[in-house]
Automatic annotation (TrEMBL):
<dbReference type="InterPro" id="IPR017475">
    <property type="entry name" value="EPS_sugar_tfrase"/>
</dbReference>
<feature type="transmembrane region" description="Helical">
    <location>
        <begin position="252"/>
        <end position="276"/>
    </location>
</feature>
<dbReference type="Pfam" id="PF02397">
    <property type="entry name" value="Bac_transf"/>
</dbReference>
<keyword id="KW-0808">Transferase</keyword>
<keyword id="KW-0812">Transmembrane</keyword>
<dbReference type="InterPro" id="IPR003362">
    <property type="entry name" value="Bact_transf"/>
</dbReference>
<feature type="transmembrane region" description="Helical">
    <location>
        <begin position="51"/>
        <end position="77"/>
    </location>
</feature>
<keyword id="KW-1133">Transmembrane helix</keyword>
<dbReference type="GO" id="GO:0016780">
    <property type="term" value="F:phosphotransferase activity, for other substituted phosphate groups"/>
</dbReference>
<comment type="similarity">
    <text>Belongs to the bacterial sugar transferase family.</text>
</comment>
<dbReference type="GO" id="GO:0016020">
    <property type="term" value="C:membrane"/>
</dbReference>
<keyword id="KW-0472">Membrane</keyword>
<feature type="transmembrane region" description="Helical">
    <location>
        <begin position="83"/>
        <end position="106"/>
    </location>
</feature>
<dbReference type="Pfam" id="PF13727">
    <property type="entry name" value="CoA_binding_3"/>
</dbReference>
<feature type="domain" description="Bacterial sugar transferase">
    <location>
        <begin position="250"/>
        <end position="429"/>
    </location>
</feature>
<protein>
    <submittedName>
        <fullName>UDP-phosphate galactose phosphotransferase</fullName>
    </submittedName>
</protein>
<feature type="transmembrane region" description="Helical">
    <location>
        <begin position="12"/>
        <end position="39"/>
    </location>
</feature>
Length: 486
């Protein structure tokens, strides 16, 4: 209803502008406004739709196309700037009227018991109970509370429909055809809730969370992703990356970039292949099973840097310090040139340019059992480089931190984040030399200095030349003890 009303308002505004001030400016403003509305998520479901709340964003969506048309189109096509401005003002007025009408209809339908979304309240402390009772008694919010979820809390007995523990949340969402999950506070731990929400996977359910210290919630932060229900803010979590429209572009970019990169890097690939063949013998490409998207295995390609015994590479963590590495092997590993054949994996669809680094089945099985959240990193395709890698988490580094950064990437993904990670990776590949600090070295005490002292024993500070000084501990600063002879 809202999307249709917006479209009708913009079309009518464009028609009025075309009839009164000219078709060129009116069509430009109308088309660009429709595009802006489509990409702004203005049609997302909300508890309490409000024209006044939407007014700043509505004005901005119309003002930007109108301003650009007046500033750019008018000089190019010799069109009067006021033509775009008139169209914009008419369109804005019609959008406000259309939304006012539709929102009134939405509230009326909800109060009649229609258009009610089914919700689960996770957490049964005072906040969760208050939310549940508010939605039960105020139908205008459009929420029907199916039940409450918590871990072994006696209060559940007084709330009516107790559905189960937090760990059972994904199953309960499917069984009760739930549309909304409202996460408050209760006996459950945050870790359990995080895992349960991640396990929802590709489910179309929307998740809202009560922020910590919500009493400090500021009204000017109220927006389409955060709403206030009976004084309690609910922040909507972003949809998983693989449920967004821009996610499809990721694969297109992978194919184009990897294909072009393979063509451009062909001479370098040939040179490296010859060097590897001369140092390690036959078999210049090292093939190994790795775990990719959704835990599926695939064969990863790398330039061979070392001849390993059969099965040694499957269970050995790192070979960076192996004495069998030759000059070529050390160089291609240090410069990451050994990973260039993985562009073929990207082209095939086994990997992406950016994503969590793929690991071997032997280690994945053990990390899944011992590292919290490790299994969730496989929600997105593995990659040549990733968010953890550009933060220095490669080689012999913390697996806990890697899993944390990989999950941050999966939950925060955007095309812009991929671009930033690619730029950070290029910057890290460029060797940089850290300049050494030139510290002033005080001269050692002379005999004249000593003769002027009356005390039997004196202490003079002294910093040894060619020695770094540690910023936090004082490092090599020491005290020279000088004693007078009898």
């Amino acid at each position: 209803m809202v999307a249709t009303a917006d479209l009708v308002a913009v079309v009518l505004g464009t028609a009025v502008g075309a009839a009164t001030v000219g078709p060129v400016a009116a069509l430009t403003v109308g088309i660009t406004t429709i595009v802006s509305i489509l990409v702004s998520r203005r049609h997302a479901w909300r508890f309490a739709p409000s024209v006044l709340t939407d007014l700043p964003s509505t004005a901005l969506i119309v003002a930007i196309p109108t301003g650009l048309s007046a500033a750019v189109l008018a000089p190019l096509l010799h069109v009067a700037p006021h033509a775009a401005i008139v169209t914009g003002l008419v369109t804005l007025a019609l959008l406000v009227v259309a939304r006012s009408t539709v929102f009134a209809a939405v509230r009326r339908r909800r109060n009649d018991g229609r258009d009610q979304l089914r919700a689960l309240v996770v957490g049964c402390d005072d906040t969760g109970v208050r939310l549940g009772q508010t939605f039960t008694h105020q139908l205008n919010y459009g929420v029907h509370v199916v039940g409450y979820v918590d871990d072994d809390r006696p209060l559940l007995a007084d709330l009516g429909a107790k559905l189960g523990s937090v760990e059972a949340l994904p199953q309960l969402v499917r069984e009760h055809d739930v549309d909304l999950v409202l996460v408050g506070f209760g006996a459950h731990s945050d870790d359990k809730v995080v895992d349960a929400i991640r396990d929802l996977g590709a489910s179309p359910v929307e998740v809202y969370v009560v922020p910590r210290m919500y009493e400090l919630h500021q009204m000017h932060h109220h927006n389409q992703a955060s709403e206030l229900i009976d004084g309690i803010p609910l922040a909507r979590l972003r949809r998983p990356a693989y449920r967004t429209a821009s996610w499809r572009l990721k694969r297109v970019i992978d194919v184009v970039v990897s294909g072009v990169a393979l063509l451009v890097a062909a001479p370098a690939l040939a040179v490296i292949a010859v060097a590897v063949r001369r140092e390690t013998g036959p078999g210049i490409i090292f093939k190994q099973e790795r775990i990719g998207l959704n835990g599926e295995p695939f064969t990863l390609f790398k330039f061979r840097s070392l001849q390993l015994a059969a099965g040694e590479g499957d269970v050995r963590w790192s070979i960076d310090t192996d004495t069998r590495l030759g000059p070529v092997g050390k160089f291609i590993r240090a410069s990451s040139l050994d990973e260039l054949p993985q562009l073929v994996n990207v082209l095939k669809g086994d990997m992406s340019l950016v994503g969590p680094r793929p690991e071997r089945p032997y280690f994945v099985e053990r990390f899944n059992e011992t590292i919290p959240g490790y299994r969730y990193r496989h929600r997105v395709p593995v990659g040549l480089t990733g968010y953890a890698a550009v933060h220095g988490l490669r080689g012999d580094t913390s697996i806990h931190q890697r899993a944390h950064f990989d999950n941050l990437y999966a939950e925060s993904w955007s095309l812009w984040l991929d671009l930033k990670i690619a730029a950070w990776t290029v910057r890290q590949l460029i060797p940089r030399r850290s300049p050494e600090a030139n510290l002033p070295v005080p001269a050692p005490p002379t005999m004249d200095d000593i003769e002027q002292l009356d005390s039997e024993t004196v202490q003079l500070p002294y910093i040894a030349p060619r020695t770094r000084v540690d910023d936090t501990t004082g490092g090599s600063e020491r005290t020279v003890i000088i004693r007078r002879s009898a």
